[in-house]
Automatic annotation (TrEMBL):
A molecular function (GO) term: protein-L-isoaspartate (D-aspartate) O-methyltransferase activity
Lineage: Eukaryota, Metazoa, Ecdysozoa, Arthropoda, Hexapoda
Catalysed reaction, written as an equation: [protein]-L-isoaspartate + S-adenosyl-L-methionine = [protein]-L-isoaspartate alpha-methyl ester + S-adenosyl-L-homocysteine
Subcellular location: Cytoplasm
Keyword Glycoprotein: no
Protein name (Swiss-Prot/TrEMBL): Protein-L-isoaspartate O-methyltransferase
Length: 229
């Protein structure tokens, strides 16, 4: 059903994602209703269920991928949780996560393109200004592959681009009971895939990894490589 959940309004898009079973929790649905995609995707037909270019060789992911991510992370995005959004881009998913962690929670969005950091701040100011005014979101410029240890450990980490290998720094910054969602490149023979990986850190510090689905994301690279692609 993915790619068939476009709408003419934000509400219609979210309802279709819920009816298709892609939005799997009421909390994820509420977040996507509260954060209007049109404030973060400045294209015609912002509610199309497809990725859209936002400049600097990156995209805002398709709504169905945001819906999956918020569903997979729902239990970790509890009231008062700390979360990290790597490759925060337009700021859309960061804002959805901020809605889910509540007034006492904190979400850090990190991107290595300064213009995208500025864009995300402007988008949240236009769409959900209370998240910035109340300090629920912090946007930073930096190499997201290294995480942001100063604000961790995190209950939830989302990575919005495909890593060559799972970044160990991000796993290290997970709190016990935390969950990381990250696309990871896999090579099988002459074929190159991307698997969406779920990494759970148990209370004893041990880690469990699970492949959720095959996906297609832009690559998680350094800023110079991204801009030259």
């Amino acid at each position: 059903m993915a790619w068939h959940c476009s709408g003419t309004t934000n509400e219609e898009m979210v309802i279709k994602l819920k009816e298709a079973g892609i939005i799997g929790t009421d909390k994820a649905k509420a977040a996507m209703l509260a954060v209007d995609r049109a404030k973060y995707c400045h294209k015609s037909d912002p509610y199309q269920d497809c990725p859209r270019q936002i400049g600097y060789n990156v995209t805002i992911s398709a709504p169905h991928m945001h819906a999956y991510a918020l569903t997979f992370l729902t239990e970790q995005l509890f009231d008062g949780a700390k979360a990290l959004d790597v490759g925060s881009g337009s700021g859309y998913l960061t804002a959805c996560m901020a809605h889910m962690v509540g007034p006492e929670g904190h979400v850090v969005g990190v991107d290595h393109i300064p213009e995208l950091v500025e864009l995300s701040i402007k988008n949240v100011q236009d769409g959900n200004p209370e998240f910035l005014e109340k300090g629920r979101i912090t946007f930073l410029e930096g190499d997201g592959r290294l995480g942001v240890a100063a604000h961790g450990p995190y209950n939830a980490i989302h990575v919005g681009a495909a890593a060559d290998t799972l970044p160990q720094e991000l796993v290290d910054q997970l709190a016990p009971g935390g969950r990381l969602i990250c696309p990871v490149v896999a090579i099988e023979g002459f074929n190159r895939f991307q698997h969406l990986m779920q990494v759970d850190k148990n209370l004893d510090g041990s880690v469990k990894k699970e492949k959720l689905m095959d996906v297609s994301y832009v690559l998680l690279t350094d800023a110079n490589t991204q801009l030259s692609n």
